[in-house]
Protein 1
Amino acid sequence: MTLRPGSLRSRRRAEAAPQDAPEPAVEVSWDDLTEAERTALKRLNRGFYPGLSQELGERLTGLGLAVARPDGIGISRAGRELVIDTLLKARLDDTNP
């Protein structure tokens, strides 16, 4: 099925899709984050995180690692990639003594 620009279905899909924050101007590494930021990203990677403070959510959003959505703060594509890459690297480090 092809969506025509301006069609009702394409407008609804665009309205429903979360708008990712622009990529951060400077790439953020796992080591650049505080322990609280790391914990929040790991929890956001699993889904909604009701314990996320507004201040921490704004900080992660400012870094491009989270996005503001109608239902709250969610992890961005860059944040998800950072978490997954970090977890995979830790797993590989554990299997290669």
Note: The chain is about 50% helix and 10% strand.
Protein 2
Amino acid sequence: MAKELLNYLVDAAAFVVFVLLISTGFVLEEALPRGSGGKAVLWGLGRHDWGEVHFVLALILILLIAVHLLLHWRWIICVTKGHDCKNRCWRTVLASVILAAVAALAAAPFFSPVVLTGERGDHYGQRQKVELYGSEDIRGSSSLAEAAQLAGIPEGDLIRELNLPPGVSSQERLGRLRREYNFSMTDVREAVRRYRAREE
């Protein structure tokens, strides 16, 4: 009975944490999108703070799933091996291959080179800052006019560089335009860099 109660509590906790993980993910994507910087807060927390909450919830969920798997380990082994002796070897091999593939997929980001936007070089030892002419201050909460002023380029040229319609208002926020016209803040900074490179 004690094991059944423990199973119930672990599964219930995992479900609650999973729902909260989804909720904080939506907060990061919709309420505090990339580029909102430190100017936007929700319940007194900025985007970075919500990112930390999201990360901690993910760690808790991983721990709860690990406990869940440990509590059901004998059942998992029995189901994997099966009752049919002829297919037992193939089932074990297949389960091992799937497990190895999942582990490789999870580990892949840690063994891949990190590329920093706005910097030259794909490796840590080769990074050199590329001057972005003040565009590092441009945020999703900036209007087109503010972004152009910060970057020191005409509004019309910024609109053209971002492939926006000519009639778009210069008072529109980049965050809303980014969602509507499918560009990123990195694209904005790259547009500034391209324009400045041509001017020089």
Note: The beta strands are 119-120, 128-129.
Protein 3
Amino acid sequence: MTDEKKLTGLTLLKKGEMRYPTSPAEAKLETFENANQQRKYWITFETSEFTSLCPITGQPDFATIRVEYIPGEWCVESKSFKLYLFSFRQTGTFYEEIVNRIYTDLDQALKPQRLVVNGDFTARGGITSSVKIDSSET
């Protein structure tokens, strides 16, 4: 496959392109073909700048989100993933729902060999929360 053909589906990677989705449903996870399907290897994304809203109080929640996966046929393009995570900023939802939504959306888009999504949320009322989904345990 030519380089040009590989890149035709990546619309968010354009120079200067910055359309911020307002919700995860509006966000688009763009993918490209895994050029090394003969090999098992890990891809990891991590951000300590994740924010969402408490569905009860509307106050911001902060987390470190870590995604690790062994790709199958597809890999996620990192800018589209960044914008996808950004789309949670105005979304009022519980931690467990956030991590499960990220897992489900990535699993559907990528069909990875293995997928682990972990959310470490900062303290609320003196209690920290961590939510983890590992496809090897589901």
Note: The domain at 22-137 is CATH 3.30.1130.10 (GTP Cyclohydrolase I, domain 2).
